[in-house]
Amino acid sequence: MKPAQITQPIIAPTSWDDLPYGDNYRRALDTSLLPWWPRLFGFHLIKIGALSGDIDTSECAISHQVTVGTRGDNLHVIADPFQLPFANKSTDACLLAHTLSYTSDPHRLLREVDRVLIDDGWLIISTFNPVSLLGIGKLCPILQRRQPYRSRMYTQMRLLDWLSVLNFEVMHRSRFQVLPWRRRGGRLLSEHLPAIGCLSVIVARKRTFPLTLNPLKSKSLKASLRRTVGAASRSN
Predict the structure, then answer these.
(1) Average pLDDT estimate for 110-130
(2) Which class is domain 16-235?
(3) Residue 128: CB partners within 8 Å, gap ≥ 6?
(4) Where in the chain are the domains?
């Protein structure tokens, strides 16, 4: 697996207003996630990062919602996302709205989220899609110093690989908002060309047992038994 950790720090925006067309991105995410909030149940929802705190979760069935981060105006807990001040398996759901796009070590952040999530807990991730107009702009050296091109962009396949290592089951994934400067992102383009949408969303659940079972083959089991019986007979 290609390492994702980088040494230089990334300064995350404290609001969607800090991003060009940020309000359009936020509204698109609100619309995309709206059908999922009523499906989440439990006691605690954690939003990691200031951008996560701005996402509308009023329709979520989880009443206790806490925003955690290091910078921002609407934070409830000021803490390092790499060291969340919560006990193991104490959280029912976690929202990472573009949090991975502005972290130097996404693997470490996902492991920390996995630590605090209960079994069958929910994880919602949104990022920028590199296979989009934003991804093309990121190839320009001049634009790389500006937002949102200075953020880190991951393909969905890469995110799915990370989640599979942590034994998360993906319930839903989508891409949308093809045109950043339009509030609806071009409805016709989003319907027919979702693969090049600027925004990517993944909804997953933490599973206790492996998603793929690997039963022992009968031949291997018989061979192992023969070696065990043979060793026992020789010792006697």
Answers:
(1) 97
(2) alpha beta
(3) 98, 101, 134, 135, 148, 151, 153, 198, 199, 200
(4) 16-235
At residue 194, the pLDDT reads 81
Contact 73, 54 (CB under 8 A): no
Instruction: Count CB neighbours of 73 within 10 A.
Output: 9
Q: How many CA atoms lie within 13 A of 202 on its CB side?
A: 26
58-96 confidence digits (pLDDT tens): 999 999 999 999 998 889 999 999 999 999 999 999 999
Helix (H) or strand (E) holding 116: helix 106-116
pTM: 0.84
Do 203 and 36 meet the contact criterion of CB atoms below 8 Å apart?
yes
> Contact, 125 vs 202, CB < 8 A?
yes
**Residue 116 to residue 165: CA distance in whole angstroms:** 17
Report CA dihedral (52, 57, 58, 62) to the nearest 10 degrees: -110
- The answer to whether 16 and 22 are in contact (CB under 8 A) is yes
Q: Rounded to whole angstroms, how far apart are CA atoms 20 and 149?
A: 10
Residue 108 confidence (pLDDT) above 80: yes
